[in-house]
Design goal:
Distance between the termini: 32 Å
CATH topology of the largest domain: Aspartate Aminotransferase, domain 2
Largest sheet: 7 strands, mixed
Structural class: alpha/beta
CATH superfamily of the largest domain: Type I PLP-dependent aspartate aminotransferase-like (Major domain)
Strand content: 5-15%
Oligomer: single chain
Shape: globular
Number of strands: 15
Helix content: 40-55%
Bound molecules: pyridoxal-5'-phosphate
Strand order of the largest sheet: 1-9-8-5-4-2-3
Number of helices: 13
CATH class of the largest domain: Alpha Beta
Order of helices and strands: HHHEHEHEHEHEEEEEHEEHEEEHHEHH
CATH architecture of the largest domain: 3-Layer(aba) Sandwich
């Protein structure tokens, strides 16, 4: 591919010396598990998210599972989440023994629909938690979701795995609910050099429970208050993440600038809709996802032109074989199903040049004009 979807090599080449120095520090200190590098990163990440506590864990999926366990969610409970998200959100629910209950999404933002949430809460027993997902880097409708959850006593858990640095009415993703979960999977806006994740919370008791759960339930070596897990963020990953966190803000600014270029170029095209950012949100564009009526044809054309576009996600969770036992059917969540047919992520990464961005949008524009002769004629007259 001449233009990849994302380019981690470009990012790490620029940071090579700092990353090597961080590795050297951890190697010499031998602080591989817990220790000062992790504590320092947790302080920095909490400050970045504008929230009192952050705890590093092994992955984003683990972060969600530990957050739910810390809240006491388990066997016999139901947890509501959008039908259109990465499978990790739902897997984490299953790992606690609880049952995932899917809810449809809003047609514009593709995040959890508060009205559908209300209907689902009224229909299901034992709803203990709701997990809005800040899909593609845009925060879900947290005010409305919190209001629905509050009426029934369900706790809200943010899945902020795609939204490091995003804002909602001025407040950061990760500070908008009882507890929030992040992934540091390499391609995320803040990515480790391997797997990693974190939870953030303003609740000191929840933070303590997660700290115990991730480390065999021990508050002191070999003194176990509860049955826990091996689920810590490695010291070396924490050291690398501390390096990368210093650049996150400027990377997100660049992501938004690229998104703006795409928006301007794609706004007037037939059959293609740029992503919509709702009022009060500051998007961080983990992915730039347009909706296209002839999505598969456009993707094939881009592939042939050496441009990597991708589909996040081709099958909504309620129709995945992994969840066949839950008994959902096609048609249950029409907005999620339409999104799965139409979404297409275009290349976007902070190191992407303006020329590469232009090559992508010009290729998309030419294809869309050719597909729509009347549009091409109208454009020709205007020119
Ligand atoms: C990446 C991601 C996760 C899971 O994170 P991992 O670190 O891969 O376990 C969960 N939810 C969403 C929305 C994600 O994008």
């Amino acid at each position: 591919m001449r233009i990849p979807l994302a380019d981690l090599r470009a990012q790490h080449t620029a940071l090579r010396d700092e990353l090597v120095e961080a590795f050297r520090r951890v190697l010499e200190s031998s602080a591989f598990v817990l220790g000062p590098e992790l504590a320092a990163f947790e302080r920095q990440f909490a400050a970045y998210c504008e929230v009192p506590h952050a705890l590093g864990v092994g992955s984003g999926t683990e972060a969600i599972a530990l957050a739910l366990r810390a809240l006491g969610v388990g066997l016999g409970d139901s947890v509501l989440l959008p039908a259109f998200t990465f499978i990790g959100t739902a897997e984490a629910v299953c790992h606690t023994g609880a049952r995932p209950v899917f809810v449809d999404i809003e047609p514009q933002t593709l995040t959890l629909d508060p009205a559908a949430l209300r209907a689902a809460i009224e229909k299901h027993h034992n709803v203990r938690a709701v997990i809005p997902v800040h899909l593609y880097g845009q925060v879900a409708a947290m005010h409305e979701i919190a209001a629905v959850a509050k009426e029934t006593g369900a706790v809200v858990v943010e899945d902020a795995a795609q939204a490091h640095g995003a804002r909602y009415h001025g407040r950061r993703a990760g500070s908008l609910a009882a507890i929030a979960c992040f992934s540091f999977y390499p391609s995320k806006n803040l990515g480790a050099l391997g797997d990693g994740g974190a939870i953030t919370t303003g609740d000191a008791d929840l933070a303590t429970r997660v700290a115990l759960l991730r480390d065999h339930g021990q508050h002191k070596k070999y003194m176990h208050d509860m049955v826990g897990f091996t689920a810590r963020l490695d010291g070396v990953q924490a050291a690398w993440l501390s390096v990368k966190l210093r650049y996150l803000e400027q990377w997100n600014v660049r992501r938004r600038a690229i998104a703006q270029m795409y928006d301007n170029a794609l706004r007037d095209l037939p059959g293609i809709s740029p992503p919509i950012t709702a009022a009060g949100r500051e998007h961080v564009y983990y992915l730039y996802v347009a909706r296209c009526s002839r999505r598969d044809a456009l993707k094939a054309h881009l592939d042939a032109c050496g441009i990597a576009a991708a589909i996040h996600y081709p099958v909504p969770l309620h129709l995945q074989p992994a969840f066949a036992h839950l008994g959902y059917r096609p048609g249950d969540f029409p907005v999620a199903e339409a999104a799965a047919r139409e979404v297409l992520a275009l290349p976007l990464y902070p190191e992407m040049s303006d020329a590469a961005v232009a090559e992508v949008y010009e290729t998309v524009r030419k294809w869309a004009m050719r597909a729509s002769p009347s549009m091409a004629a109208a454009q020709g007259q205007r020119a």
